Amino acid sequence: MSEAVTLRAPAFRREPGKLWIVPPAALLALLFFYPLVLIARQAFLDDRGVANVAEVIRVLHSRFFLNALINTVSISVAATAGCLVVGLVLALILAFVPFPGSGFIARLIDTFIALPTFLVTLAFTFLYGSAGMLNAGLMETFSLPLPPVDFLYSAWGVILAEVTVYTPFILRPLLAAFSLVDRGQIEAASVLGARPFRIVRQVILPAAIPALIAGGSLCLLLTVNEFGIVLFIGAKGVITLPLLIYGKAIQESAYQVACIIAVVNIALSLGLFGLYRFAAGRLGA
Amino acid sequence: MSAAAFTGTSVMDIDAAKVRGAGSNVHFDKVSVAYGAHVVLHPLTLDIAPGEILAMIGPSGSGKTTALRAVAGFVRPASGRIRIGATDVTDLPPYERGLGMVVQNYALFPHMRVEDNVAFGLRAQGADKALIGERIKDALGTVGMSAYARRYPRELSGGQQQRVAIARALAVRPRVLLLDEPLSALDAQIRRNMVEEIARLHRSLPGLTILYVTHDQTEALTLADKIAIMRDGRVCSHGPTTELYRRPPNRFTAEFLGRANLLPVTVAEAVGPKGFATARHGDALLTGAGRNEKAGDKSLLCIRPQHLSLTADSDHTNRIVGTLQEVHWQGELTHLVLDVDGTPVRVSATRLPIALPEPGAKVPLFFAPADTSLLPEDAGV
């Protein structure tokens, strides 16, 4: 026997909570994605809206672009390596060598994060510039006619400034990782006959690898995009991608070229950001 | 893996003489430790003989772990010297002291396989590959973990991790093994098994000197040749385990090392040539093992709960009467609590009369003089 079954259409249920996604999404689209689309459009399309692949290839093969790309990558890699070494040494000392005031020193180093990047460059000019304290002191002490220290207005000056500014970005995750290292493991290793260097290498560092990767990739991301330090130092021949974009867009009014380079810069940054999120995820950040 | 005993294969078999030889005794010579003005270990003078297990027990903050850490080299004494064998190690860093250590949370290196954990100390000391392989095999065999050599610590249970920690400590042939609350993180059943296994391990390594820090009196009583009881940074008693248990020198020791009934008594007749004194508790005249008590001394008569019997026999010549207050049946044992002239007295009985008295009833208790110990009322803090 068949039975009449009344099928009731599911009632339309309003879920007003879902609508909360609209305002932030709209804001992001307006302030972030739309400008990005405009940049990409400017980079790949000509004034008539036709794809301009020839121009893109020309810019990507140009000497000024390749030089800027090489400068950007080599300076950011060198600065990140410097940050990793300095940050690691500082973090090891702050975390494992007990001394009064170590917490204060850690917080003091943290304050660097709050300072504008050009401030360090300005300070470096006072310290290591041609008329800075170091050169003045050396010239007076050794009666030298010219300033002997002349690294500030080169790629080395940029690297040193970036290491100074961005080391706290390595230090913070490393200190967090070191605080999780079981002191019992270090003591057990020491009792078993391991000297401090072996303990650092075989016990502490393996525990800090995710923090090193996370801090390192963040540092790389920030140094790739660093503009203020490079501009402020004004080192001769040291043109990085952000500086090249600035030069092409503002000084030469070559907007399409600037946008093509900007797209490359954005792709590089997003790749590094992806690496950072992956590493930070593994760290539990 | 079952809670199988450590195997008979001994890590000592390869190089027995090195560990068995003299030179593994530990000597504390007036060692004190202070953090600023706060003294955590008052001058401590103590010897641990080669091959001996000394258990340091005491409540939290009593200084036992500080003493162990001073031997390990993690705490610098404010005064005094520490010698291991003929070597004054006071100023040596931990990695030059030739020790092994096992701690409560195992402290295995999580990124290393079991075999690499065991090999860590040997590699740090520059041992050659062949020797390392041999020692890994031997040490893991000793603790029954040979089948787990390729595992990571996270793939092992707590008990298995502690076995690996012991193997790692033994692999370097330590002069002295330091055990800092090694079983505290394990659950009760595994802990009981591990205590028996450590006892078995020491029987197979008779030359190994062990300093065992614990707050668990059962571990100390099961394992130790000697016990030092710590309180407030001082050793309040030290001696052979059985002696300390049977004849506690003070109230704290009596109560910390096992359960104790302490009856206040007045010595009626001084200690005689056989070492017994008579003492009065209320109307009862009791005989107890004494030291140098004199007539009229106020003392405490220490009787362990398991030495009190509800039935008389020829040895149990002492008799007191109490009012039964509580009965707790716990399977193997039945615990009774009685009031004896205002003093609570516990009885742990394996066998009880068929007709158990009701709470409130007057119950006679019997005990042997040899199972008692007189201790001064004001001693032992």
UniProtKB/TrEMBL annotation, chain A:
<comment type="similarity">
    <text>Belongs to the binding-protein-dependent transport system permease family.</text>
</comment>
<feature type="transmembrane region" description="Helical">
    <location>
        <begin position="203"/>
        <end position="223"/>
    </location>
</feature>
<keyword id="KW-1133">Transmembrane helix</keyword>
<dbReference type="Pfam" id="PF00528">
    <property type="entry name" value="BPD_transp_1"/>
</dbReference>
<feature type="transmembrane region" description="Helical">
    <location>
        <begin position="229"/>
        <end position="247"/>
    </location>
</feature>
<feature type="transmembrane region" description="Helical">
    <location>
        <begin position="109"/>
        <end position="131"/>
    </location>
</feature>
<keyword id="KW-1003">Cell membrane</keyword>
<keyword id="KW-0813">Transport</keyword>
<dbReference type="InterPro" id="IPR017636">
    <property type="entry name" value="AminoethylPonate_ABC_perm-PhnU"/>
</dbReference>
<keyword id="KW-0812">Transmembrane</keyword>
<dbReference type="InterPro" id="IPR000515">
    <property type="entry name" value="MetI-like"/>
</dbReference>
<feature type="transmembrane region" description="Helical">
    <location>
        <begin position="21"/>
        <end position="44"/>
    </location>
</feature>
<dbReference type="InterPro" id="IPR035906">
    <property type="entry name" value="MetI-like_sf"/>
</dbReference>
<feature type="transmembrane region" description="Helical">
    <location>
        <begin position="64"/>
        <end position="97"/>
    </location>
</feature>
<protein>
    <submittedName>
        <fullName>2-aminoethylphosphonate ABC transporter, permease protein</fullName>
    </submittedName>
</protein>
<dbReference type="GO" id="GO:0055085">
    <property type="term" value="P:transmembrane transport"/>
</dbReference>
<dbReference type="GO" id="GO:0005886">
    <property type="term" value="C:plasma membrane"/>
</dbReference>
<feature type="domain" description="ABC transmembrane type-1">
    <location>
        <begin position="69"/>
        <end position="276"/>
    </location>
</feature>
<feature type="transmembrane region" description="Helical">
    <location>
        <begin position="254"/>
        <end position="276"/>
    </location>
</feature>
<keyword id="KW-0997">Cell inner membrane</keyword>
<dbReference type="GO" id="GO:0033223">
    <property type="term" value="P:2-aminoethylphosphonate transport"/>
</dbReference>
<keyword id="KW-0472">Membrane</keyword>
From TrEMBL, chain B:
<dbReference type="GO" id="GO:0043190">
    <property type="term" value="C:ATP-binding cassette (ABC) transporter complex"/>
</dbReference>
<dbReference type="InterPro" id="IPR050093">
    <property type="entry name" value="ABC_SmlMolc_Importer"/>
</dbReference>
<dbReference type="InterPro" id="IPR027417">
    <property type="entry name" value="P-loop_NTPase"/>
</dbReference>
<keyword id="KW-0813">Transport</keyword>
<keyword id="KW-0547">Nucleotide-binding</keyword>
<dbReference type="InterPro" id="IPR008995">
    <property type="entry name" value="Mo/tungstate-bd_C_term_dom"/>
</dbReference>
<dbReference type="GO" id="GO:0016887">
    <property type="term" value="F:ATP hydrolysis activity"/>
</dbReference>
<feature type="domain" description="ABC transporter">
    <location>
        <begin position="26"/>
        <end position="257"/>
    </location>
</feature>
<dbReference type="InterPro" id="IPR003439">
    <property type="entry name" value="ABC_transporter-like_ATP-bd"/>
</dbReference>
<dbReference type="InterPro" id="IPR013611">
    <property type="entry name" value="Transp-assoc_OB_typ2"/>
</dbReference>
<comment type="similarity">
    <text>Belongs to the ABC transporter superfamily.</text>
</comment>
<protein>
    <submittedName>
        <fullName>ABC transporter related protein</fullName>
    </submittedName>
</protein>
<dbReference type="Pfam" id="PF08402">
    <property type="entry name" value="TOBE_2"/>
</dbReference>
<dbReference type="GO" id="GO:0022857">
    <property type="term" value="F:transmembrane transporter activity"/>
</dbReference>
<dbReference type="GO" id="GO:0015697">
    <property type="term" value="P:quaternary ammonium group transport"/>
</dbReference>
<keyword id="KW-0067">ATP-binding</keyword>
<dbReference type="Pfam" id="PF00005">
    <property type="entry name" value="ABC_tran"/>
</dbReference>
<dbReference type="GO" id="GO:0005524">
    <property type="term" value="F:ATP binding"/>
</dbReference>
<dbReference type="InterPro" id="IPR017871">
    <property type="entry name" value="ABC_transporter-like_CS"/>
</dbReference>
<dbReference type="InterPro" id="IPR003593">
    <property type="entry name" value="AAA+_ATPase"/>
</dbReference>
